[in-house]
Amino acid sequence: MPAGGLLTRTIDTLFSTNSSPAVDQVIARIIAGDANDDQLGRLRAKCDAVVNDNCEEDQEFNWYFARGQKLVRQENWEQLGQEIRQFDDMRATTTGGTPIPCILTKGAREDIVGPIEKALREKDSVPRTAGFAAYHDILRDHPTDYGIAAILAFAHIDAGWAWHDYAPKGDNESFLKTFRRHFGLAQEILNNFNALDLGSPILAAAQCAALPGLTNPHLRFLDDYEDLLGLDPTTPRHFFNFGMHLLPKWFGSYDQLETQARRMTEDFDIIWGNGAYALTYTGALSHDRAAIGTIDTDLFLSALLDVFERRVDQHTVNYFAAFLSLTLGDLSNRKETKANRRKRHKILEAADYIFEEHLHEIHPLLWYDAAVTVDPNMPQGDDEFQKALGERIALEIITRRKAG
């Protein structure tokens, strides 16, 4: 059946009963180890897609991450800053659409941010922040290099979130004070550069990431995202982040989300068709399922088609397959109105369209990440552990939906 016909059938079909599994129960059973290698083999045999736990996107990400980390350890800051600026100017991305400058800066700040996150998470040592002084010295030596500035700004943002996320319940004011201090330092750095004048998406992205530390972010977040999306309208993650920040628990409202998502279709129709509507709502729904209350389901589903016409890589396909079937899947304790449930089921059926028409590989880490949106207490472990868990979850969900 042609893709359009299949999606039309999807749009016109509503479940009168719920035939999909309760994904939280499936995930809980898998985490508990209620499966063996024979069962895993049978799941693999039933699934048409092959498992690729070292996909091209992962390889590219790891290479550029290691490149950024290596150049910092070699103290080759001029080369690192130059590469960030060049890739930024080229709007260069990985196969899956991740901006390469963002990966370079992430690798470049790992040695300073990683130990802080570990110390706060495991509560086994005092976080060491002396490395920030050295990074600030480097920026003072290269005051016009916005690549180095982006590294330091994102490092402060990451550190701020670490103190925020691992703050103890109750007596946490000192942690929140440190959170605000790091975000304030990030903003001070960004104030010395103009992303629009420099034509720099990474600086614009850093400014959007720094919004939570501002006193009145709701007064400027639309302008900041207008700058970012105008500079780099082809990167999906910018729309995802915009959708998230449009939520009422951030800087917007559900009505504003709907208004802005529709505006995105008008502003970026040449690039995405209606696809920007789906991208914006996907970012919101990943953090707040109640956002489905204002969504136009027919527009969202047709927008998905536009996205898949433009993003044919398996990374994007896996992202949406996992998002639809896990994040928007049925939960045993989900509380929602009947109207929202009908909307969600209508969109959830699009996962079957993706499985039949687009999914040729399974990228386990993306399925693991989506499972975390269902169960925030998912066991972490290393990459290999997460890949094994993500593979089992993907195979289970896909074969169940195909059988159902």
List the keywords.
mainly alpha, 404 residues, 68% helix, two-stranded parallel sheet
Describe the structure.
The chain is mainly alpha-helical and 404 residues long. The chain has a domain at 1-76 and 311-404. The protein has helices spanning 3-12, 23-31, 37-46, 56-73, 77-90, 100-122, 130-141, 146-165, 173-190, 195-198, 201-209, 221-231, 236-245, 254-267, 269-272, 275-285, 297-310, 314-327, 338-348, 350-357, 364-374, 383-403; strands at residues 50-51, 361-362. The radius of gyration is 22 Å and the shape is globular. The two termini are 19 Å apart.
What would you say about this model in short?
By secondary structure, this protein is an all-alpha fold. The protein has a domain at 1-76 and 311-404.
Topology:
Layout: H1 3-12, H2 23-31, H3 37-46, E1 50-51, H4 56-73, H5 77-90, H6 100-122, H7 130-141, H8 146-165, H9 173-190, H10 195-198, H11 201-209, H12 221-231, H13 236-245, H14 254-267, H15 269-272, H16 275-285, H17 297-310, H18 314-327, H19 338-348, H20 350-357, E2 361-362, H21 364-374, H22 383-403
Parallel strand pairs: 1-2
Principal-axis shape equals globular
- % residues in beta strands: under 5%
Major sheet characteristics? 2 strands, parallel
Number of β-strand runs = 2
Q: Which structural class do you get from the secondary structure elements?
A: mainly alpha
End-to-end span in angstroms?
A: 19 Å
Computed over alpha carbons, the radius of gyration is 22 Å
Summarize the helix and strand pattern as letters: HHHEHHHHHHHHHHHHHHHHHEHH
Q: How much helix is in the residues?
A: 55-70%
